[in-house]
Amino acid sequence: MDIALFSPSSLFSEEEEGEEKEKSQQSCVQRKHEFPGMELIIREFSFHQLNANLLWPGTFAFAEWLVEHRSWIEGRRCIELGSGTGALAIFLRKFVHLDITTSDYNDQEIEDNIAQNCRENGIIPVLPHIKHTWGENFPFIDPGWDLIIASDILLYVKQYPNLIKTLSFLLKSYKPKDWNSLPQIKQEQNDGECIGLPQPVFLMSWRRRIGKEDESLFFNGCEDAGLDVKHIGSRVYCIKPRETTMESN
């Protein structure tokens, strides 16, 4: 998750800020959360300056949608943007054994908390994690993830250009590790229209309501960057490079 436009840390002197940071690091709680078919124990911070502290309701709705469309994601190499606590990625690893990497802002506390939540829920070794601030150079030149997912990451409008820059790189620079190992693309009918998931693709669930004008800034920005955007139901959006075509079985 990217940095908020306003940080409470600006209200404190250096000494007070250090005390507040120590307090925030120590203030956390483990909660049980019900995901489809399982219960996860997730450590959440009561406060985190990068908003990577809590599970939002959209996470559970997206998890249910992915369960309903599990054939679309099985066998994929996946990276999640804005992983936060890592709960969704942990669920997908346990539920469909998804090859998934977490990522979030370059912050050690976020990475350590995801690792802790992995261990707490029996994911050992822990999921691979990438520290990445949207818009900055990605640590891998040839990204090999054919599925990118995210839930409720459009909170900070001023970060849209940076998010789109990162998305464009991951989608347009995608290089599969092994062409022969790519899974078959599944297609299903939705109100008479055939929908399939191309490779690569970005699946985003967005349920936290903001103004239509702000929301359109992101989707229009994607289009301007050469990405096609399609709403495929239940507030889930499919975003892919414009030159990518849907394939049939």
What's the quick description here?
The protein is of the alpha/beta class and 249 residues long.
Class of secondary structure makeup: alpha/beta
Q: What percentage of amino acids are in beta strands?
A: 15-25%
Which term fits the overall shape?
Answer: globular
Low-confidence stretches: 1-25, 179-189, 244-249
What is the average of the pLDDT values?
Answer: 83
**Number of helices in the DSSP assignment:** 7
Cα radius of gyration in angstroms: 18 Å
End-to-end separation: 36 Å
SSE pattern, N- to C-terminal: HEEHHEHEHEEHEEEHEE
Helix fraction bin: 25-40%
Spatial strand order of the main sheet: 5-4-3-6-9-11-10
The beta-strand count equals: 11
Question: Mind summarizing the main beta sheet?
Answer: 7 strands, mixed
Give the SSE map:
Blueprint: H1 14-26, E1 28-35, E2 38-45, H2 57-68, H3 70-73, E3 77-80, H4 87-96, E4 99-104, H5 108-120, E5 129-131, E6 147-151, H6 160-172, E7 187-190, E8 193-196, E9 201-205, H7 212-224, E10 227-231, E11 236-241
Parallel strand pairs: 3-4, 3-6, 4-5, 6-9
Antiparallel strand pairs: 1-2, 7-8, 9-11, 10-11
Helix pairs in contact: 6-7
